[in-house]
Amino acid sequence: MEDKIRKNLEVQLSEVETLQSMYNPGELRVEDLNVLADVNAFVEGRAPDLPAYLDLTVNLLVDQHKFELCINLSHEYPDVEPDLFVRNHKLNKQQHAALNKDLGDYVAGVSRGEPCIFSAISWLQDNAQNYVVSEEVEERIEKDEALVRYWIYSHHIYSKSKRREIVDLAHKMNITGFCMPGKPGIICVEGTTSDCNEWWQTIKAMNWKRIFCKISEQCQDSGDGFLKFRTFEERVFQNSSIKCTHMNMGELYKFLDEHDCGYIFKDIFGVEVKPGPL
């Protein structure tokens, strides 16, 4: 298994090197150069521990429209599809979702075992403009001020670009809660129904292995005391500074309990919490 991972990472390094020769630093960005160094060290046998996943961002200008392609490469790539999604803040929710779905469908049709990032970039350059409307249409939606709280479960949340987008969009929409990265990934968002729905539709449109809203809570009264969090932040529950993988469930429960949400732990994980460390 380790030999196979090393072979996959060799392919990833070669692909990154090729992309770096084709794009300047303003167009192609390795999100964490330390991770790139760790991958090199592992491939060369200088480091025994598996490195974190590589995160790349490609900035493209297509017909004067700026698109950002965010890429996360697992240890299994290129034997599995890359985790990628496109951002363009001028696209509405429907356009954004359609673009990411169609790009995902295209990548899914590419033969596995071969690098496909350049193919994805080429597809985006050829097709991205088709998802941009020529005139902005402003939709007026009456705000539903009822309060809700969504508990969202993801198979994993590793990509730094996705993690940044989750937090930035929540701040932009005045949503509170938290995001726990790793495997599994847990997100709690709370706020008005319209704001939470818009945030969820945008985040759900990204390319995920599996993500769904597991529990939805609605305010049944005037709203006093319903909101449990004062802001939105990423929370990592680990005993050390090692790479973000599996979280400390005991620390997560303690955090939930401190915010009067300890009851939700059993509903999410199906485990009854007992006194003492988990």
From TrEMBL:
Family matches, as InterPro entries: Phi-like, Prp3_C, RWD_dom, RWDD2A-B_C, UBQ-conjugating_enzyme/RWD
Pfam families linked to this entry: Prp3_C, RWD
PROSITE patterns named in the record: RWD (PS50908)
UniProt protein name: RWD domain-containing protein
Sequence ranges assigned to domain RWD in this UniProt record: 14-131
SMART domains assigned to the protein according to its UniProt record, in alphabetical order: RWD
Species per Swiss-Prot/TrEMBL record: Tenebrio molitor
Gene3D superfamilies documented for this protein: Ubiquitin Conjugating Enzyme (3.10.110.10)
Superkingdom assignment: Eukaryota
